[in-house]
Amino acid sequence: MAEPDYIDEENPELIRPQKLINPVKSSRNHQDLHRELLMNQKRGLAPQNKPELQKVMEKRKRDQVIKQQKEEEAQKKKSDLEIELMKRQQKLEQLELEKQKVQEEQENAPEFVKVKGNLRRTAQESAEAPDS
To answer: Ranges of Basic and acidic residues compositional bias (predicted)?
Structure first.
């Protein structure tokens, strides 16, 4: 590859190429903005250009935390009546579960156990009938 003629410094008549000036960088507004960004970066105040998805996810997380805090406050403010009602409701649910377990055990029991239980009941009923 041939070298250009202007590399030789022997010929003073040739015009040397110069780097073109970027009009955007040379503008006063651009220089001011660049200076401001550099100062903010040194201070740690760099603008945060987060993607939209990240902003939405952070907003949802904040909303969820706020909602959870409100629920906790509502639970703390329950009256004595509400607390008693909750306790009774839990007791009733436990009783229902126990009844269901007993019924399932009776259904799963062998046939001879069911017949034996029926015989005992009839024997107790017949024993009680003459007494009265």
So the answer is: 52-80
CA separation for the pair 38, 58 (Å, rounded): 28
Q: In angstroms, what CA-CA distances link 14 with 4, 6, 39, 74, 113?
A: 11, 6, 43, 86, 119
Determine the Cα–Cα distance for residues 96 and 130; give it in Å rounded to an integer. 36
Cα dist. 114→31, 32, 120 in Å?
Answer: 96, 94, 10
Element (H, E) at 122: helix 111-131
Q: Give CA–CA dist 65/57, Å, rounded.
A: 12
Give CA–CA dist 44/42, Å, rounded: 5
Residue for token digits 């939209």?
Answer: 52
Is 131 a residue whose pLDDT tops 60?
A: no
Residue 132: pLDDT over 60: no
* CA distances (Å), origin 93, targets 82, 86, 88, 96, 97: 16, 11, 9, 5, 6
pTM: 0.31
